[in-house]
User: What shape does this take?
Amino acid sequence: MKKLLFKIGIFAVFLATLFIFSAQPSFADVSKKTAPYRVGKWLPSDQQILNDWRADIISQTDGSGKVALLPVIQEFKDLIESDPELFMLFTEMFKQVPLKPPYDKDPTGKPQVRDYNHMLQLINAIMTRAPEFNKTGLVGFPINAILDWPMGTSAGTAAFLNDKVNRQLKKILTQWAVFLGSPDSRYVLSADSKNGWFGRDAKKAMPTFVKDFICDPKKPYYGFTSWDDFFTRVFREGRRPVADPDDDNVISNSCESAPYRLVENVKLRDNFWIKAQPYSLTHMMGDEELAKQFAGGTVYQAFLSALSYHRWHSPVSGKIVKVQNIDGSYYAEAQSLGFDPSGPNESQGYITQVAARALLLIEADNPDIGLMGVMFVGMAEVSSNEVTVYEGQHVKKGDELGMFHFGGSTHTLIFRPGVKLDFDLHGQKPGLHSSNIPVRSKIATVKKTKK
Assistant: This one.
């Protein structure tokens, strides 16, 4: 796995530049796109909002002068400067950003991010910020917003697939998670009309929030103890009932999520980095022997939105036979797509093979399903894929399996060949324009195997 990712990254450095620069959308194309431009509202659908946010944090950070880096950010700087390959890549990724709109300048006329030292100062400032509400979409990927263009270059592709870089990014995001889990992060849980999560605009966006989720509007911050506590909020009893709880032929939705892709006859190994982003089971699961059991089977993928519910639930009743957190990338996106202004939204198939993710295997009570996989994939600023079940535990359909702690996210259901399924996508075609299907509602029905 590590050797493959390294080869892909180096290949991208030497061969992808010509493709990227010749395939860039014009400024008009980038600025006028709607969905899927800001799918899930992890970043604002209004490009000017994002530009203004980026300009504001750059202005504030630059205006503060040279601030001492937090230890975890200083470690990142030391890593970049002590490793010749990383020093080259983190220097070149900023030089490779095209010198034309919309890539070249921020709204103040300055380069958006000038070099890796500037990048580190901006990330340093983000470590004590929590996401504010915005009706066009929150800046839920603040580091992603800073790296939008550099991460799309050939040097950025290689850098953000590097194991050492991703280990350090994991430490940085874990440190940010400490702040997001602290009472200090509650300042955004305010009644500010535009940016507060309980203000005028937020209430319009989430009109049934109090009815849906366990909270107390009479208490400060509605009773939430931190931003993370708010983000991982829980539905009130009865708001998301389990579909046909006693019928093991009915598979329920694992997340409050929108259908992205449904593919049958998935290959054991495939070229997942190309434009079609096919699934490659060996690389998804990180275990070829395990993946062989699912070769020729079915993969269903769906994505979560910023305003959604972020806990995971079991799609079937059965025994948890494997739990594995797989380390991976945080800011890698498919080079075949060129610059994605809201990356990695358009790289969701690709990141199931390379991103940090949690894999659970469940031996379903229904023998017509048998062993199945459920994979929860972090996108960008996800600091933790937390699994809350253990190997050997029996779960009922609809029981909690874990949760995403902030950031964009996607998940897959993986079925073995021979499992016959009728999917119910609630009248939708999979894709970036689809909308949420409620968690624990019916997502598919198993066809009985003839004896």
Q: What stands out?
A: The longest strand covers residues 318-326. The longest helix spans residues 2-22. Residues 422 and 445 are 5 Å apart (CA to CA).
